[in-house]
Specification:
Number of domains: 4
GO molecular function, one term: catalytic activity
Number of helices: 21
Radius of gyration: 41 Å
Strand order of the largest sheet: 3-2-1-6-5-4
Number of strands: 23
CATH architecture of the largest domain: 2-Layer Sandwich
Pfam families: GAF (PF01590), GGDEF (PF00990), PAS_4 (PF08448), PAS_9 (PF13426)
Shape: elongated
Strand content: 25-35%
Largest sheet: 6 strands, antiparallel
InterPro entries: Biofilm_reg_signaling, GAF, GAF-like_dom_sf, GGDEF_dom, Nucleotide_cyclase, PAC, PAS, PAS-assoc_C
Structural class: alpha+beta
CATH superfamily of the largest domain: Reverse transcriptase/Diguanylate cyclase domain
Protein name: Response regulator PleD
CATH topology of the largest domain: Alpha-Beta Plaits
């Protein structure tokens, strides 16, 4: 076993992990749901969200796993956090790092593992989203990509928690600063400042600043000495807010309202001219015959940046989803479209916004709906399934692969399904072409040796139902080597193509003509009455090949020699032996003078 490596920045990494206060906290429903979805995406029985501490690994969320953690030294996730890319171990028993690992040779008997590192905002790898199985796996690219996407969403949730903790810490510092300022202020503002959590500004009716705490200085850069006596609207408010603020202030004064506070998000100006985002609460209070205004502000720049980052991340994820050559969607339990990506427009001619929230039946049309509904029914029953079908879409008939993944709530109730539909038309065509090429001679287009062996096997099976003789001809061109020597191989290829054409025309449509190699050909005939039928066909072929071959103005006189092997129903099915027998019979014809045919004798081949 090779222990998990320790990164050079491990001390800082552990400190960042512990700052999140997640290691020994209670269960987290978001993390639990992520493990369930990860197990379904990867089709594995087990999934974990792990946190890798200094010397231990904590299983923060578990799906179908009784263990709560392990030593870091034997952890798979300790290896995973040491690299930026996902760690995939298809068979731990074959991997030198894990073959004798206690987690492999003992419970939980890990054979397959896939883990995606989870990072803090400062890019410290603190743990993983991982799946494992007791059987070896080779995951497909689509499932692994889905696991990575899920890990990124989970990482965003952890990063938001990190931002909230940082913001809370910042707020605590400002509270202590504000409290210190409260202690130094006059008694008239003591009660108000004692409740201030953020920057506090007290103003007169006309906006003149009467009170200003240290948090306001920290927020704006203006000191109390610089700002007191000035009108806050002239120094702090951005120009586009000044008229609305004056109107609201005048309304408060006119109506004498001193009980209702107003809160809004806006921007204020710092001393250096920069704008910062704040949440501002304006609270009017009565002071004799006049109304004073208390303004409380706190900096929400970090939150705004986090929201913008999250929004950008969602937009990027949406952009990625919209540019994938895959239809991704979500259908709820009422068969309504919750989401589809942009490929819907390409396939069905409608913008995703036009179908969102609508019944899927309306979006697909009656024909496709009837084909899709049985699959969705099974998905809504909690079954994950995949299905291939050829369907008509906007771009024509295509072969699609549909994967349906149930979306279960914390009680295990299925509330909808995720759909992933991949156009595999090109792959299917490639598979068909490769299969065809594997069984076809590229020069003549005839079946090749592999194909004729298969055809002979199939003929032997049919012969058990129709017990008539089967004949195999083995032919070659007499004098073909001289053609190659005199005219070259390109000319020889033309002769072979002409030979193949004549051969096809000389036999029945259901007879199989194949090219083995060079100038060697075979013909498979079924349902013969006796060897006279085979002799009649062979005689015809010999006669056809006696006709002159014309090559670049040259007249060539060639011929063919044919060996014939018969198989009767009671004989063993051995395609190779049948070919060898026909081959031996052909060479016997050549030795006897060529340009003829002959039958295999007992013992040939």
């Amino acid at each position: 076993m090779i222990p998990a490596p320790i990164p050079a920045n491990d001390a800082a990494r552990v400190q960042a992990l512990r700052a999140l206060a997640m290691l020994d906290a209670g269960p987290d429903a978001t993390l639990d749901r992520a493990t369930r979805l990860a197990a379904r995406l990867m089709n594995t029985p087990h999934a974990l969200v792990t946190l890798v501490d200094a010397d231990r690994q904590v299983f923060k969320a578990r799906y179908d796993c009784d263990l709560t953690g392990s030593d870091r030294a034997i952890s798979f996730c300790g290896h995973a956090i040491a690299q930026d890319q996902p760690l995939v171990v298809t068979d731990a028993l074959l991997d030198a790092r894990f073959a004798d690992n206690p987690l492999v040779v003992g419970p939980p008997s890990i054979r397959f593992y896939a883990g995606v590192p989870l990072h803090t905002l400062d890019h410290y790898a603190i743990g993983t989203l991982c799946v494992f199985d007791t059987q070896p796996h080779v995951p497909d690219a689509a499932s692994l990509d889905a696991l990575i996407d899920l890990a990124r969403l989970l990482q965003q949730s952890i990063n938001l928690r990190e931002l909230e903790l940082r913001n809370t810490a910042t707020h605590g510092d400002k509270l202590r600063q504000a409290q210190d300022e409260v202690d130094r202020r006059q008694k008239r503002l003591a009660d108000t400042l004692e409740t201030a959590l953020e920057a506090f500004i007290g103003t007169a009716e006309d906006g003149r600043i009467l009170a200003w705490n240290q948090a306001a200085t920290d927020l704006t850069g203006w000191s109390a000495e610089e700002i007191k006596g000035q009108r806050y609207q002239d120094f702090l408010l951005i120009p586009e807010d000044r008229l609305a603020a004056a109107t609201a202030r005048d309304e408060f004064i006119r109506e004498g309202r001193t009980t209702r506070a107003a809160r809004r998000e806006t921007e204020v100006l710092r001393k250096d001219g920069r704008r910062i985002a704040v949440e501002m609460t304006v609270s009017p209070i009565a002071d004799g015959e006049q109304i004073l205004f208390n303004l409380f502000m706190h900096d929400i720049s970090a939150r705004k940046h986090a929201e913008a980052a999250l929004r950008q991340s969602r937009e990027e994820l949406q952009t990625i989803a919209d540019n994938l050559p895959v239809l991704i969607g979500y259908i709820d339990a009422d068969y309504r479209v919750g989401y589809v990506n942009a490929i819907w427009r390409e396939w069905f001619g409608k913008d995703p916004s036009q179908v969102s929230g609508r019944p899927l039946q309306d979006a697909l049309g009656p024909d496709l709906w009837l084909r899709a509904k049985p699959l969705l029914d099974k998905g809504l029953q909690g079954l994950k399934l995949a299905f291939e079908s050829t369907v008509p879409i906007r771009n024509g008939e295509r072969t699609l692969r549909l994967t349906v993944i149930p979306d279960d709530d914390h009680q295990g109730q299925t509330r909808g399904v995720y759909m992933m539909i991949i156009d595999i038309s090109d792959r299917k065509r490639l598979e068909e072409r490769l299969q065809r090429e594997a069984l076809e001679d590229p020069l003549t287009g005839l079946p090749n040796r592999r194909a004729i062996l298969r055809r002979i096997e199939e003929a032997c099976v049919r012969q058990t139902r129709h017990p008539n003789p089967v004949a195999l001809f083995f032919l070659d061109l007499d004098g073909f080597k001289g053609v190659n020597d005199r005219f070259g191989h390109d000319a020889g290829d033309e002769v072979l193509r002409e030979f193949a054409r004549r051969l096809r025309e000389a036999v029945r449509a259901n007879d199989v003509v194949a090219r083995l190699a060079g100038d060697e050909f075979t013909v498979l005939l079924e349902d013969l009455h006796d060897e006279r039928d085979a002799a009649q066909v062979a005689s015809k072929i010999v006669g056809v090949m006696r006709a002159p071959f014309v090559l670049h103005g040259e007249v060539l006189h060639l011929s063919t020699s044919i060996g014939i092997a018969l198989r009767h129903p009671h004989q063993p099915a051995n395609p190779g032996a049948l070919i060898d027998a026909a081959d031996a019979a052909m060479y016997a014809v050549k030795r006897a003078g060529k340009n003829n045919y002959g039958f295999a004798r007992d013992g040939d081949g």
